[in-house]
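Example record used in the benchmark description.
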Amino acid sequence: MLTKNMAVEWAKHNVQVNGIGPGYFATEQTKPIRVDGHPFNDFIIGLTPAERWGNPEDLQGAAVFLSSKASDFVNGQIIYVDGGILATIGKPANE
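Model output (structure tokens):
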């Protein structure tokens, strides 16, 4: 809601406010749980349609888009970079 509220407030000043919603990413902090056989690792890989953790480089495209002229009329949005994991929420496990 912060993104949406700021977008509405600042739009009249030609300022666009958007966000990037990252999924589960491979970082030093997640390294201990990103091993084969770890229950959380297996859960994330199994739930993510891309069948992998994200790499920090995967965020670059969204960041470049939002900082370019191509997004001048995009405002108040969250671009999810999550390998499709949010698309699986609420779906039965066998689909």
